[in-house]
Write a structure and sequence with these properties.
By secondary structure, the chain is of the alpha+beta class. It has a single domain (about 45-175), classed as Nuclear Transport Factor 2, Chain: A (Roll), CATH 3.10.450.50. Helices cover about 25% and strands about 25% of the residues. Strands 2, 3, 4, 6 and 7 form a five-stranded antiparallel sheet that branches. A hairpin with a 2-residue loop joins strand 3 (about 115-120) and strand 4. It is globular, with a radius of gyration of 27 Å.
């Protein structure tokens, strides 16, 4: 009996010919890293269509809010390397850091976003933005300037250019108010 348990079946059994065929799973190429490590450009903002352009605008406004307390200008420069106003904002951040200053307030909220207008590798979007009161203060919290009051609906616009290298939109120009 011990021999029977250990030897198993002695009948020949044919392999099942209805098993699924094996094939390599489709893989998608990973998008290159873009944006700050703790706040990367989301995948939905990296499609070359109207939805991707609008998602990038929404990310850009969120990025401005994210970077203001940090005063880290690098992401603004990387995502808007040819954008004059992006570079101006980045320079303001750098000047504040060099002077041991910071911004209080200034959060931006999108409203009245229009349908992106696409033309080849370019997207243009008109929008309104609410900016909360903002002021520049020194290290002790004393106001450095008079600041700006709440702006409820600044007429604004952005032009984005598609970057094949980054597989993302980049800011070509932006006007806030």
């Amino acid at each position: 009996m011990g021999t029977t348990l250990l030897s198993g079946c002695s009948e020949k059994v044919e392999a099942n010919d209805t098993l699924p065929l094996t094939s390599a799973a489709e893989t998608t190429e990973a998008l290159p890293d873009l944006g700050p490590a703790d706040f990367p450009v989301p995948d939905d903002a990296r499609t070359k269509d109207a939805a991707g352009a609008e998602a990038f605008l929404r990310y850009w406004i969120d990025l401005l809010n994210h970077q203001r307390p940090l005063l880290d200008s690098d992401p603004l420069r990387a995502l808007g390397p040819e954008c004059r106003d992006c570079l101006r904002i980045a320079d303001n951040y750098d000047e504040a850091v060099a002077s041991s200053q910071r911004y209080e307030g200034g959060e931006l909220t999108l409203n009245d976003v229009t349908e992106p207008q696409l033309s080849g590798d370019e997207a243009s979007i008109t929008f309104g933005v609410r900016q909360e009161a903002v002021r520049l203060v020194d290290a002790a919290g004393n106001p450095v300037d008079d600041g700006l009051p709440v702006q409820t609906n600044l007429g604004s616009g952005i032009t984005l250019l598609w970057s094949e290298d980054d597989q993302s939109w980049l800011v070509s120009s932006v006007t806030l108010g």
